[in-house]
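Figure 6 in text form: structure in, sequence out.
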């Protein structure tokens, strides 16, 4: 509900008018709905997944539990940066969101937030994220956050998304940046384990997103977004999911030299578990039987959480690292 609609609703309800001329209950409802609409622009459920990867990266950077205040400041700044990118994405993609069933309840589609307000909100969050990270963490983390926002908007949203089925492959790099920001927050630099974690999420993104796109293929086709399931056969998509899944699982093991046997064991077991379901999806598609791509989508979230939680626990315990074999 917009501010105008909220005010109109209060004017029509005269049964419980406050002496000042306003309905306290109606005012509170209107305010909560407006705040909720702006919060929805930031796509908080997407941000949750980003934060799951940021904290373990901070644990691994120092091989210990980092300062709670540093974690809080990094998460606050990172949340603002992700919210900024998501809000600006909503502004740019409002035309797409209107024709997709999956996104038709977003605030700009329902006119719950004016387009100008959403733009200002997104830009303000971006500026606030830089200020918070610069003042409470360090300059490198702040610059990386701004670079992430710019990449997500100008490279993914404005260039890749509507032009190539490789959109989520290369555009997904923006979702990999929280681990780099988390590492930079602790160390003040970026070292090789941060790039390996970046790669884990980079190779995880296509299977995760393509599984979702298989379910909502007609949505993307109607919106004119050339997601891989729109332009390729289901068998090709499922095969690509299997290939990226194998690379992803192998890539997680590259962190073994910086961790202990605990992380390596969980990464291998979780990888085998996920690969089983990726292959099962491919097998179902090849045999022409009913497939459930959303099951793999949800399992991909679980898989990523297991890998990064194992990373955090391994670092917190501080077991001896395996190191390089040479």
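Output sequence:
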């Amino acid at each position: 509900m917009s501010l105008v609609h909220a005010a109109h609703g209060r004017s029509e309800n005269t049964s419980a008018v406050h002496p000042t001329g306003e309905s306290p209950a109606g005012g509170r409802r209107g305010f909560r709905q407006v705040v909720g609409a702006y919060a929805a622009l930031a796509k908080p459920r997407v941000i949750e997944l980003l934060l799951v990867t940021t904290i373990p990266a901070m644990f691994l950077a120092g091989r210990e539990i980092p300062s709670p205040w540093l974690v809080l400041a990094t998460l606050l700044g990172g949340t603002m940066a992700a919210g900024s990118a998501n809000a600006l994405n909503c502004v740019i993609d409002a035309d797409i969101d209107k024709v997709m069933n999956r996104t038709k309840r977003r605030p700009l589609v329902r006119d719950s937030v004016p387009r100008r307000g959403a733009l200002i909100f997104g830009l303000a969050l971006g500026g606030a994220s830089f200020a918070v990270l610069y003042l409470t963490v360090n300059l490198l983390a702040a610059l990386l956050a701004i670079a992430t926002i710019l990449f997500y908007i100008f490279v993914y949203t404005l260039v890749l998304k509507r032009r190539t089925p490789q959109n989520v492959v290369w555009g997904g790099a923006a979702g990999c940046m929280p681990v780099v920001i988390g590492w930079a927050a602790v160390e003040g630099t970026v070292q090789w384990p941060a790039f390996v974690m970046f790669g884990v999420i980079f190779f995880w993104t296509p299977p995760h997103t393509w599984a979702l796109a298989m379910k909502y293929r007609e949505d993307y086709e109607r919106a004119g977004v050339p997601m891989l399931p729109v332009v390729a056969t289901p068998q090709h998509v499922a095969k690509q999911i299997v290939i990226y899944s194998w690379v992803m699982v192998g890539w997680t093991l590259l962190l073994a030299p910086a961790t202990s046997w605990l992380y390596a064991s969980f990464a291998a077991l979780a990888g085998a578990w996920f690969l089983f379901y990726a292959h099962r999806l491919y097998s179902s598609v090849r045999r022409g039987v009913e497939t459930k791509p959303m099951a793999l989508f949800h399992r991909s979230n679980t898989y990523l959480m297991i890998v990064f939680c194992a990373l955090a626990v391994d670092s917190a315990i501080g077991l001896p690292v395996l190191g390089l074999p040479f």
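Caption detail: Residues 19 and 25 are 13 Å apart (CA to CA).
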